Amino acid sequence: MPRMAQALRSCRVLQHLHTVGTSSLLQTTATATATATCQASTSGSGCERDGYSALLALSRQLYRYGFSSLANTRSARLREVTEALMTPSRSLQFDRGDVPIPADLNNPLGRAMLRLMGFESKASKILHSAQRLYEAVTENADTGVMQRAFQSGTMFWATYVFLSLHVWMVIHRLRNCTSPDVRIFRQRFYNQFQADVENRVYSAGVQVGVTKWLKKLETHFYETGFELDEILKKGSTDPLLLTDIFLRRFYGGDEKHRADAELVSRYAMRELHCLALTDDATVLGGHVRFSGSGLLQEAVQRAGVLSPAEDGAATAPAPAVGEEGAGA
């Protein structure tokens, strides 16, 4: 039985290392393991013990190699992402075009009907702009690049935190807008976020207690936003200013993710500056493209980051949204 447990342990190590891209070592290990096994099966009990000893030695080697590989990937990721986030800030202006008219209504009669129904009214245009801006948020958060760059894990929570971060940044930026329509626009934009989060909760498999989870997520959003706003009132431009908040709110206070929280802080401070460089009309028109995915894509590729949980999935305050109630 102990020998069987040892063999299973080695198999698990092989499987884990395969997921982090150590295929060349696995091929060598597989050959050596097969040789040791053949020797054990043909040479009696003494050689059998030698075979198991060789297997255990390979297991230890794989553990050392695996931890070394992960450490090297982590160091490369932290370096590459930090360098990417040190690039100069710029305006986030990006023309997203107008809301397309359905093909069957794109004719004189159809357009006249749409005008009568308020499609081109002021309220409708504000709604369309809010939809465009929230599209920019989801476009940035759903690529998986930020999850890999900041190692937020693979669960529902991993994407939710970046959706909520960008929504907060937009709302924070809108406080400096002087347009009389900003209050209505902000509410329409936030409504898009709430509706999307509800759909994502259902998509994560939650069938009961949805209202409870939505309330928890909303509370988390407001509390996190309040803390971020309060610390920004100090007027500091330190890129690591928000680290402690992100560590506690996004990573559950797990100190092994402090370096990741520092990266999120750098990103948020840079993106807030980019939003400040983007004029009010552009933001209120929804013609924005956040820089996260585009800026970090090459960085994570250069670092060889293959997974959003390669350093160990984050321990966040509410990752169970995708688990509790699943299939109920």
TrEMBL record:
Coiled coil: none annotated. Residues 308-328 are annotated as: Disordered. Transmembrane segments: none annotated. It holds the Pfam family Ubiq_cyt_C_chap. GO terms for biological process: mitochondrial respiratory chain complex III assembly. It comes from the Eukaryota. InterPro entries: Ubiq_cyt_c_chap, Ubiqinol_cyt_c_chaperone_CPB3. One of its GO terms (cellular component) is mitochondrion. Residues 158-290 form the Ubiquinol-cytochrome c chaperone domain. Belongs to the CBP3 family. This is Ubiquinol-cytochrome c chaperone domain-containing protein. It comes from Pleodorina starrii.
